[in-house]
Design a protein that fits this description.
Distance between the termini: 93 Å
Structural class: mainly alpha
Largest sheet: none
Shape: elongated
Order of helices and strands: HHHHHHH
Number of helices: 7
Helix content: over 70%
Length: 188
């Protein structure tokens, strides 16, 4: 084989390897973004499951113990509706009900409220961590930039989830105004 043919073959091989590497890198970026997209969606589903289970846990804390009075269970259900999404206020309410409930129900209710609040906080913190990782990938890496340009990532569904943080009106108002007001809605 002549030197010209060897050089031509070498150039062709370098071209094929370079193009193959670029295509492989692009596919790797797309698949990494797809996995991160799926992780965000799965984390949101986990949050929905945890939030749904939390209300049931509070109901069951009173209902499963058969010797509690119906009015005790009714009080718990009313408080759950009134303080939905405000576990700290539910905790204050339960503490104040100490004299109105049997000691056994009061203790069980307090433990359940603490568990519910901890689970909700844990699952939301986990979601925030997954979202942070995805945002770091998209905006802080060349591979993420490639995925964003070639695959339109994050997907619209994942972006909606990424932008959604479970909060309450008072917190959102505080963030909007930068003014933290003392909350007295427990007394209302």
């Amino acid at each position: 084989m002549s030197n010209g043919a060897k050089v031509g073959l070498g150039i062709f091989m370098v071209f094929v390897i370079t193009v193959g590497g670029i295509i492989g890198y692009a596919f790797s970026a797309k698949y990494t973004a797809e996995r991160k997209d799926n992780a965000v969606v799965a984390q949101d589903e986990s949050m929905q499951n945890t939030f749904a289970m939390s209300g049931n846990m509070l109901k069951l804390s009173g209902i499963t113990v058969k010797n509690f009075a119906a009015h005790d269970i009714k009080k718990i259900e009313i408080a759950m509706k009134r303080y939905n999404g405000k576990p700290n206020l539910m905790m204050i309410w339960a503490k104040e009900q100490g004299n109105n409930f049997t000691p056994e129900l009061h203790s069980k209710l307090m433990v359940t409220i603490e568990k519910v609040a901890a689970k909700k906080e844990k699952v939301q913190l986990s979601k925030i961590s997954v979202v942070q990782d995805y945002r770091d990938f998209i905006s802080g890496s060349f591979k993420g930039t490639v995925a964003q340009m070639m695959g339109n990532y994050p997907s619209a569904k994942a972006q909606i989830i990424m932008d959604r943080i479970i909060s309450n009106k008072a917190t959102k108002e505080t963030w909007k105004t930068s003014n933290d007001e003392v909350q007295e809605d427990f007394l209302n």
